[in-house]
Structure formats: structure tokens, C-alpha cells
Give the backbone structure.
Amino acid sequence: MGLDRMEKDIKNNREFFEQEPSMEHMDKFLFKLQEEKGQSSTSLLPEKNQWLLAIAASIIILIGMTWFIQDQALNNIQTPPQDLSFKLYEIKAYYTQSSDKKWADINECSQSSERNKKILKNTENQLLKLDYNTEKIALQLKDANGNKKLELAYIQSLKAKNDLVNTMYNQICSPQQNQLLTQ
């Protein structure tokens, strides 16, 4: 029906469909084509400025990311407590690290005998007392700004704890190491 009619019209007007378009028609077609092409490529900024804008945007993004990463890194850095000066905080960190390392070794060495377990228990009690005294001095340091005698007492308390741990290490672990060397 509709399709048959269309086929019939094409067959009846075959000459019209086989004719080449006139040159005037081709010129109009090409002119309109170029006109539309020119309109679609026209933008608010010339092509040179688009590149500069893209580069500027990339730089801004890069700076923003760098700032964000550095800000995160600075937030993750441990800051010393407000009640101790940075120097005292470093001293405390040094003595604590040294004591903790040796204390772990002492716990391993003391498992070999009952005598060493008793010594370890006694040492733990002494260390708790030293820790209590050290914390008391730290609280006093918060109120006494720059009191050198109090700072010295704090350092001596930390050192006393470290010396006790070293003595216990030498008493409990060193004989075992000497026995291992002689065997």
C-alpha cells in the first residue's frame, strides 16, 4: 500500500532521481556545510587560550593535591604532650624505648627458671613505683615552667628506671648468653 505507491512513484519519475544536481545546488550545499562547520567550532575562547586555561587548571589541581597531602602528613606527626618540653619528651622517648626493648628480652630470659621469675616479679613492682614517681614529677613539671631542678629530677627518675632494667638484664640474660657461648 504505502510502499507500493512509493515504488510506483520512483519508477515513474526515474529520470528525476537519476539526474545530477546542478552546480548551483552543489555550491549552496557546500556553503551551508561550511557555515555550520564554522558555527560548531566557534567557542568562547580561542584555541590558544583554551590550552593556557587547561594548563592553569592542571597547575591549580596539582597545587591543591600537594597542599592536601602535606596537610595530612603534618596531622599524622606525633606532637609531644603539652606538659613536657620537646627536649624532655625526646629524653623520655629514648629511655622508654631502651627500657622496653631490654624488658622484652628479660621476659624471655626469665622463663627458664623459677628464681628468675621471682626476680622478674620483684622488678616489676619496683618499676611500677618508679613509673608512679615519674608521673608525679611530670604533673609537677606542668605547673613549674622551666624549673631546672624538677626537670633534672624527672630525667633522673627515667634514668633510674632504665638502670634498673639494665641491671636486671645483666643479671638474668647475660649469664644465659655466656652459657650459650661456652657450649
Q: What stands out?
A: Confidence is low (pLDDT under 50) at residues 178-183.
